[in-house]
Amino acid sequence: MTGNPISFDNCARLLRGHRNRALAMLEVQGEKLAHYTAAGTAMDIISGKSLWLRNAALMNDFSEIEYGTKLLNACLNKYAERFSTVTAMIHPDVERLTLSWLRGLEDVLKSQTYISSLSVIKADEKLGRLSMWRAYGGLDGGVAIIFNLADLLAREDPYAAMLHPVRYGDHAFEQFFIDLLDTLAGFAGPLSAEPSRTVSLLYRLLQEAVLTAKHKGFEEEQEWRLIYSLFVDGADFGTIRKCVQGLPQVILPLPLERTNPKLGPLFNFADVFHGLVVGPCQYPTQCIEALVQELSDAGVGNAYDLITASDIPLRHAR
């Protein structure tokens, strides 16, 4: 064998090849990621210069997590022999420890995992997407905050491990599982040098897969998710307490500004912010006026020019 042996960190990066290719594709196609939310929440996100990660149990439909868990269990059963063979190539304890951790996965997802959902927005999508306004619009107004997150994370930022594209449908999940086992087998040598880290990495990869699995019927959303696990990652971020739609809850605010070089590349909120679309609502002019002032206070220049009002017709419930 020639050349330097591959490091554990490089193995971990290559095991997320699907995510890395999807990130690169966003950059090549000039696409951004939009966070659809209520106008009031958008004001808090801008003023706090942070994107809110909410407890996974408070997702729009917790059955999404149950769907991903079902797919994972099906693959673990169907490919049990292959899983056992591949993990044994790394270390005899990897299978036992990983499966032990996975037995508590659903509880971890409900209590120690935080996510934020984003949706791909193309350069020509000036008005947002009707299906998203149906979910987040209304008389009080929804907005889509458009971020340059993909550009930031493509620079190997420490946040990069948190962002993942959603996989749609049973087949996509099964193919991920097959590819994962093949890649693990290929890197069994370097991974065997650090079995404890391998267990943690494998658990994290499977946890991410569960949280990014959705029914194929939702494919038009082109969703990405930011995922943070207290169980795996620890408590690097502080927490805040907010009421969202009347429900008090703990929020993990992901900073969208960094001034400490020890934490990674420096950037400010204006670097990450790309634009904003105000969805169909009763008072768009007043909403835009307040958002312009909030963005200006956050250091965004020419804020008014970066806001678009969507005139997509949306039927409001009476």
Instruction: Give me the strand/helix succession.
Output: HHEHEHHHHEHEHEEHHHEEHEEHEHE
Give the amount of beta strand, in percent: 15-25%
Number of domains: 1
Looking at how many chains there are and whether they match, the oligomeric state comes to single chain
Q: Residue share in helices? A: 40-55%
Number of strands: 12
Largest sheet: 10 strands, mixed
From the spread of the alpha carbons, the general shape counts as elongated
Class per helix and strand makeup: alpha+beta
Overall residue-averaged pLDDT value = 86
Taking all Cα atoms into account, the compactness measure Rg is 21 Å
Low-confidence stretches: none
Q: Can you count the helices?
A: 15
What is the end-to-end distance?
71 Å
Concise summary:
With 318 residues, this protein is an alpha+beta fold. Helices cover 47% and strands 20% of the residues.
